Amino acid sequence: MVTGLIKIGTVSPEGRSVTFTGVPAGGWFGEGTVLKNEPRRYDIVALRDTRMAFMERATFMWLLENSVGFNRFLVRQLNERLSHFMALLEYDRLLDATPRLARCIASLFNPVLYPGGGDHLDITQEELGLLSGITRQVANQALKTLQKDGIVRLEYGGITVVDLERLRNYGA
Fold first, then answer.
1. How far apart are CA 160 and CA 140, in angstroms?
2. Torsion sign across C-alpha atoms 96, 99, 102, 104
3. Residue range 136-145, pLDDT digits in tens
4. Three-state SS at 29
5. Which stretches does DSSP call E strand in the chain?
6. Which of the residues in the chain have pLDDT under 50?
7. Is 83:91 a contact under the CB 8 Å cutoff?
8. What is the CATH number of the domain that holds 114?
9. In this structure, what is the dihedral angle of CA atoms 150, 155, 158, 163, given to the nearest 10 degrees?
């Protein structure tokens, strides 16, 4: 991801949708599809104006076969993403809305998956709701709670994380 924000998810044949994760600028995705050489099994939806850089499969495979550095990068990405998805599943099943939103926001500041993000995220309440599996209205209330607790600062069109460690552990 060069700029913007995407949502990765899917829609069932019955029309039910699920969001797996969001990927902000600096993120990387799609290596599993390339490694398995199969069609992508999920949808990519740009939540705002977005620019993405693509790597051809031939280049990817050449790097995989010839670059130890690329292999280390890829293993670290896959391991971090597995950990990320396991955590999201845990949050979804065990946490109420505010802690779930807090952990979702914190996940967008993962330095391995999304390097160079700083402490500000241009994101709407609607987008945060989509990414965390809650409504915009519930996201609004949860954000107000997080701001009251001094963990985030709400701004027009985005949020600034004041205390990332507390955000990561909110509700624990």
1. 15
2. negative
3. 999 999 999 9
4. coil
5. 5-11, 17-24, 43-46, 120-121, 152-155, 158-161
6. none
7. no
8. 1.10.10.10
9. -20
**Mean pLDDT estimate for the chain:** 91
CB count within 10 Å of CB 37 equals 8
**Residue 119 is which amino acid?**
D
Instruction: Tell me how far apart the alpha carbons of residues 27 and 57 are, in angstroms, rounded to a whole number.
Output: 18
All residues at 6 or more sequence positions from 63 whose CB lies less than 8 Å from its CB, including other chains: 70
- The gap between the terminal CA atoms of the chain, to the nearest Å, is 31
The count of domains in the chain is 1
CA distance 71 to 49: 31
Alpha helices for 68-135 (secondary structure H): 68-94, 97-107, 125-132
Reported as a single tens digit per residue, the pLDDT across 113-157 is: 888 778 998 888 988 998 888 999 999 999 999 999 999 999 988
Q: Which domain holds residue 52?
A: 5-168
Bridge partners, 46 (sequence order): 6
d(CA 101, CA 15): 24
To which residue do tokens 């069609």 refer?
A: 39
